[in-house]
Amino acid sequence: MADRILVTGGAGFIGSHLCDALLARGATVRVFDNLDPQVHGPLAGNGRGPIPPAYLSPEVEFIYGDVRDREALHRALKGVDVVFHQAAAVGVGQSMYQVHRYIDVNTCGTAVLLDLLVNEPNRVRKLIVASSMSIYGEGAYTCPNCGPIYPELRSLAQLAVGDWEMHCAHCGAIATPCPTDEDKPLQPTSVYAVSKKDQEELCLIIGRAYAIPTVALRYFNVYGPRQALSNPYTGVAAIFCGRLLNGNRPLIFEDGQQTRDFVHVRDIVQANLLALENDAADYQAINVGTGQRTSVSQLAALLIERLGLDLEPNVAHEFRKGDIRHCYADITKARRLLGYKPSTPFDEGVHDLIAWVSQQTARDDVAGAYAELAARGLTLAAT
Ligand SMILES: NC(=O)c1ccc[n+]([C@@H]2O[C@H](COP(=O)([O-])OP(=O)(O)OC[C@H]3O[C@@H](n4cnc5c(N)ncnc54)[C@H](O)[C@@H]3O)[C@@H](O)[C@H]2O)c1
Ligand SMILES: [Zn+2]
């Protein structure tokens, strides 16, 4: 692979693994990242500028910069054949009060990138953007009486009495989750999700109009080594690990039976490489998950067991406004168009995660993050 590749957000969790895989294939890799302190901790520098995290391969050309900085991003695009756009502010709850920052970094940052691709000479022949399952809102369900349904969020009145499961809006029966495919209408329920939908749609629209082959990969809940353990706003697996490393009980919302599709970062990398090497998915949005669902309580129990700890999670019977109950991926399209095949069963993936987590330390600021939400009335207790 003789390509010159730019990975925006490449110093992050997913981006850095992608860089490793691209380097292993012989690509020349440049990273453009502003080392967001919420992800990376306080900025550290030497005489030559800010220092990327130690896990980032020294073979990567690192450029410190913000995707909203047009001139800096313009320089980073020089000579680039392929762009993986991973840079984003990542945090569902936080986006509900840092409204402007999330739209600015995610939506406007993507707009800057696309503006450059459209208006400045360049040789980019492929754009792959990190989208998200959050854009679906609730997943797809089946009602025993009415068949397939795409429900909206559960009402506050329902949640306030601790009635957590999804009811069919037509007949009231409890609906069963089923795999969510790409045709499900998009119903984002957070500012973050709106911004991810913007990123996806902006890239696909510009890609189609200017014949720049573009793929949007809708990642489900990604976990694995290097996910920021001290960032209380992102992935639940990393947040639980950060708690556990400090001897604290994981905080579980609702009753813990809500389910997600936890996909190992290795499989996210696999999908990105397939999207690069293959044109069958060009101009499409594609789910990247495992097709399996796991409850948040199962996740917490497995992490506690594997870390050899003796404590119980704190099942709070509280809920966060905007949270969905169930969503897991239908990966038929990724299989068909890309030949994607999840490689890492959850059990094995957690083993890998724990091997890394055991070597880490973390600052646990979950209480602070929770207080931010509670102070704004974004969490509520069920009676
Ligand atoms: N982790 C998940 O479960 C998940 C799920 C769905 C989608 N995604 C998407 O995948 C991508 C990567 O996420 P991640 O989990 O690796 O998160 P991450 O926070 O580890 O990585 C994001 C990187 O982007 C950088 N960044 C943030 N703002 C920037 C800016 N203004 N300019 C330049 N760089 C900036 C950060 O410093 C960080 O290194 C994001 O687009 C995210 O929305 C992640
Ligand atoms: Zn029904």
Q: Which properties best describe this structure?
A:
single chain; 383 residues; alpha/beta; Rossmann fold; 7-stranded parallel beta sheet; 3-stranded antiparallel beta sheet; 13 helices; 36% helix; globular; binds nicotinamide-adenine-dinucleotide; binds zinc ion
Shape: globular
- Strand residues, percent: 15-25%
Radius of gyration: 20 Å
| Low-confidence regions | none
- Distinct ligand kinds: nicotinamide-adenine-dinucleotide, zinc ion
Mean pLDDT: 95
* Major sheet description: 7 strands, parallel
The CATH topology: Rossmann fold
* Total beta strand runs: 21
Walk me through the structure.
The chain is an alpha/beta fold. It has one domain: NAD(P)-binding Rossmann-like Domain (Rossmann fold), CATH 3.40.50.720. It contains 13 helices and 21 strands. Strands 5-2-1-6-7-11-16 form a 7-stranded parallel beta sheet, sandwiched between helices. Strands 9-8-10 form a 3-stranded antiparallel beta sheet, with no helix packed on it. A hairpin with a 3-residue loop joins strand 8 and strand 9. Helix 5 runs parallel beside helix 7 and helix 8 packs parallel to helix 10. The model has no long low-confidence stretch (mean pLDDT 95). Bound molecules: nicotinamide-adenine-dinucleotide (NAD) and zinc ion. The site of zinc ion (ZN) has 7 residues, from loops.
Summarize the helices and strands and which ones pair or pack.
Blueprint lengths: L3 E5 L4 H12 L3 E6 L3 H4 L4 E2 L2 E2 L10 E4 L5 H7 L5 E4 L6 H4 L3 H21 L6 E7 L8 E3 L3 E3 L6 H5 L15 E2 L13 H20 L3 E6 L1 E3 L12 H10 L5 E2 L6 E2 L1 E3 H13 L6 E5 L5 E2 H11 L7 E2 L2 E3 L5 E2 L4 H7 L7 H12 L8 H10 L3 E3 L2
Parallel strand pairs: 1-2, 1-6, 2-5, 6-7, 7-11, 11-16, 12-15, 13-18, 14-20
Antiparallel strand pairs: 3-4, 8-9, 8-10, 14-17, 19-21
Helix pairs in contact: 1-9, 5-7, 8-10
Zinc ion binds next to loops.
